[in-house]
Amino acid sequence: MTDKQSVVIIGGGPAGLTAAWELIKDGGADKYDVTVLEGTREFGGISRTVKHNGNRMDIGGHRFFSKDDRIMDWWKDVLPLQGAPSYDDKKLGREHDMEPGGPDPEVEDKVMLKRHRVSRIYWNRHFFDYPISLSPNTLKAMGVKLTLVAGFSYLKSMIHKLPETNLENFYINRFGRKLYSMFFEGYTEKLWGRHPSQISADWGSQRVKGLSILGVLKNAFQKLLPKKRSNAEVETSLIEEFWYPKYGPGQLWETVEHNCETAGVKVVTDATVVEVRQVAGHISSVVTEDSEGNRKEIHADQFISSMPVKDLVDAIDAGEQAVQGKSAPADMVHIAEGLPYRDFVTVGLLVKHLRLKNTTDIPTLGNPPIVPDCWIYVQDPGYKVGRLQIFNNWSPYLVKDVDNTVWIGLEYFCEEGDSFWNMSDEEATKFAISELTRMRVISGPADVIDSHRERVKKAYPAYFDTYEHMDELIEYLDGFGNLYCVGRNGQHRYNNMDHSMATAIEAVSNIKSGKTSKKNVWSVNTDKAYHEQK
Q1: I need a surface site. Which of 78, 448, 462, 471 has the fewest CB within 10 A?
Q2: Do 333 and 366 reside in the same domain of the chain?
Q3: Among 134-143, 185-194, 197-206, 467-476, which is the least confidently predicted range?
Q4: Do 352 and 333 share a structural domain?
Q5: Is 294 a residue whose pLDDT tops 60?
Q6: Cα–Cα distances in Å, from 188 out to 208, 236, 313, 338, 475?
Q7: Angle, helices 14-24/497-513, rounded to nearest 10 degrees
Q8: What's the average model confidence in pLDDT over 509-515?
Q9: 49: which strand partners?
Q10: Which one, of 126, 16, 49, lies nearest residue 346 by Cα?
Q11: Residue 433: which CATH number?
Q12: What is the torsion angle, in degrees rounded to the nearest 10, for the CA atoms of residue 323, residue 324, residue 326 and residue 332?
């Protein structure tokens, strides 16, 4: 006999692994029998690092910063901050506030680098600051006439507010109709495959929050002041400094998984949950299936799920019990099945050099030196690519030959099964090279040394179709007292990584304390306590 509570965690991404560590740390193995079920053989979900021929690819780009001090401390406990200059710090004479006694990234691998964020927008063959700033470069690129039109459009939006019944009105209220039409309308449609007028304003309030022209003006003015501000004082979209694992985000989650197993967590890979069984309003067990079709039933006292809500509801009493009429209610199945996602393809291109010249005052690596951007947002509707990542600038250790090659990721938003998703590796690579050439980022195919295409399912939970009934689905799922939905896909919420982790921390807190209300779990990134403006 044992007094231990058994906990099954579905998913080995940030939310699932955070939950596992929160349960097992500090002697938790004496109280909890924890099992993590991961459908793939990798950890980190969309926060994983993909390895290809000595180069590493960050899927989606992950800046490590949070307004939640619990999360910042959590990350630092896993990978301590650098205590000595990294390779590029040394070569460029760059200085940071080093962590006393912290590891030397040139010697040790388990280290978190301090990075400076540079992001720009590509539009009409011009580069603009991201988010849009009122710099001389922006005014020059837009021209006097367009600047005046945008300015008067913004003044009109301050006086005449539109009802925020959709994402289009949300953006217009904050930036004016002209800037919305230039920088938000086409890009949003590219990202979601829907016009902003068809998308809930919830997405904007969650991802953009307090950012507006006034926010940009305030930030620009405060940057002129001598006092240095902490990240807690700056809008999330304007934050310019962040942490980053030496070998990308996947390194952190692989380390967490290793720590969990060492502390007593049972981790099962190639274990896709296909059935969720209930007894008397509680989840009793889950059934997993591996890639060879073998099934296994696992019983537990508590269940933490980061699997997509659509798949979770579909799995509730699936199989034989569903035939007996015990599956999830039809209206809940309808809502869950109607929840939309946007899928994602990254094409990595290793190139000899860039055509772009570094016109900033920020020194960069490379021969010749490259531009300093982490991301370049392609908000020009003439291109399918949504963003460019330059991995050299995230961490020099992501690139095998960081001095003589540039490792670029082209991010494409699409839907599983559409024409772009179904392209062969060769077709997708050829398409990416043609776009990069048209953008004048590279000279042509001869510049490309190597490539890799990566497809990611359910990367972005979307806010349209049946999403408006999400509250009803939450009420149904919360009815299972021992089921906790966490993470981006587990809550069908476009959370940042820190928010996904916070949902897991709240869920574990409830399990430990016996708290029955799950409002705190669902409130992460919605209540004022989690807003990115302090």
Answers
A1: 471
A2: no
A3: 134-143
A4: no
A5: yes
A6: 13, 19, 29, 20, 30
A7: 40
A8: 96
A9: 58
A10: 49
A11: 3.90.660.10
A12: 40
In a domain, 525, yes or no: yes
CA-CA distance, 37 to 154, in Å (whole number)?
A: 50
- Region of 143 (left: φ > 0; alpha: ψ -120 to 50; beta: rest) is left
Q: Cα–Cα distance between 355 and 444 in angstroms, integer? A: 10
Convert the pLDDT of each residue in 9-24 to its tens digit: 999 999 999 999 999 9
Q: Please give the structure tokens belonging to residue 1.
A: 């006999």
In angstroms, the Cα distances linking 185 to 79, 178, 246, 379, 381 are 39, 10, 36, 9, 9
Q: Which of 343, 354, 369 is nearest to 436 (CA)?
A: 354
Q: Does residue 431 share a domain with residue 380?
A: yes
What's the pLDDT tens digit per position in 142-177? 888 888 888 888 889 888 999 989 999 999 988 889
**Confidence grade of residue 523 (pLDDT, cut at 50, 70, 90):** very high
Backbone angles phi, psi at 318, to 5 degrees: -75, 175
What's residue 437's pLDDT? 97
- 205 or 174: whose pLDDT is higher? 174
Q: What are phi and psi of 483, to 5 degrees?
A: -120, 130
Tokens encoding 466: 């049946």
347 shares a domain with 262: no
Question: Are residues 233 and 271 both part of a single domain?
Answer: no
- 227 and 322 in a single domain? The answer is no
Distance CA 270, CA 402 (A): 34
Please name the helix (run of DSSP H) or strand (run of DSSP E) that holds residue 10, with its range, or none: strand 5-10
The whole domain housing 478 covers 5-45+253-339+464-530
**What is the C-alpha to C-alpha distance for residues 253 and 128, in angstroms, rounded to an integer?**
34
C-alpha 297/C-alpha 285 separation (Å) is: 7
What is the secondary structure of 148-206 as a DSSP string?
A: HHHHHHHHHHHHSPPP-SSHHHHHHHHHHHHHIIIIIHHHHHHHHSS-GGGS-THHHHH
| Cα-only R_g, the chain | 24
Task: Say what the pLDDT of residue 529 is.
Answer: 42
Residues 266, 301 within the same domain? yes
Query: What's the confidence (pLDDT) of residue 205?
Result: 67
d(CA 397, CA 117): 17
Count of CA atoms in the C-beta half-sphere (13 A) of 379: 24
Look at residues 416, 434, 461 and tell me which one is the last residue of a structural domain.
Answer: 461
